[in-house]
Design a protein that fits this description.
Layout: E1 2-7, H1 16-28, E2 34-39, H2 64-74, E3 78-84, H3 92-99, E4 109-116, H4 121-133, E5 137-138, E6 145-148, H5 150-153, H6 162-166, H7 171-197
The structure holds flavin mononucleotide.
């Protein structure tokens, strides 16, 4: 399973990449998962100004950086969107990037990992709703992972603190069960998507 891990903040001094690095490392340690970070900082697309909603615009003219972001998204079988909470919701940069999506994530298993003072739970709830409108197959709330005080638990190399690792109900176990759930859905959905593509 090719897993795209989207880093949903771009501000100077941001912490979200720490969480993404931890996810990528943990995912790559599981047989059958190949994970890669997709950092929105590498796709500085403008604010969305297209005249028609992209899913309903056959004559779409798209900004070249936004096109690169969508081409990158298309490469993956499954996704984890990583978001902090800004003003009780997702970051503006992530919402803007999602507004460009057409069918790239359709019927692909997708999970949300968040952080913030209350684990980013409000942002995660909004993000699941937003991604379901993008036609992603969003995992149920049992597979949501929200981490409070994330920057105290994960360093800038993506290593989880020894204390957090030692907690049997801590983030590592939750992440691993989320990754296994994504894989389960991918094993079920990938052949079904291939059938549709083949017109069967
Ligand atoms: C503009 C802004 C708004 C924020 N709003 C919230 C919030 O509503 N709830 C919360 O728990 N944390 C909030 N925070 C704290 C962030 O979740 C925390 O700083 C986190 O590290 C931000 O992710 P980043 O470092 O990748 O930008 C806010 C931070 C910023 C910069």
């Amino acid at each position: 399973m090719k897993l795209g891990v989207i880093t949903g903040s771009t501000r100077d001094g941001r912490k979200t990449p720490n969480q993404s690095k931890w996810i990528v490392k943990s995912a790559n340690a599981i047989e059958g998962i190949e994970a890669e970070e997709i950092d929105l900082l590498d796709y500085p697309m403008p604010f969305f100004t297209e005249p028609v909603s992209p899913r309903y615009n056959p004559d779409r003219i798209i900004d070249p950086t936004a096109k690169k972001w969508l081409d990158k998204l298309e490469e993956f079988d499954a996704y984890i969107f990583v978001t902090p909470e800004y003003n009780h919701s997702v970051t503006g940069v992530l919402k803007n990037a999602i507004d460009y999506i057409t069918w790239e994530v359709q019927r692909k298993p997708t999970a949300v990992v968040s952080h913030g003072a209350a684990g980013g739970a409000r942002a995660a709830t909004d993000l699941k709703e937003i991604l379901s409108e993008s036609r992603a197959t969003v995992l149920n709330s049992g597979s949501r992972l929200a981490i409070a005080s994330m920057s105290e638990k994960i360093d800038d190399q993506g290593n989880l603190s020894e204390e957090a690792k030692a907690n049997p109900y801590g983030p590592q176990g939750s992440l691993e069960s989320l990754l296994n759930e994504l894989k389960w859905y991918n094993d079920a959905l990938k052949p079904a998507r291939a059938k549709i593509q083949a017109g069967l």
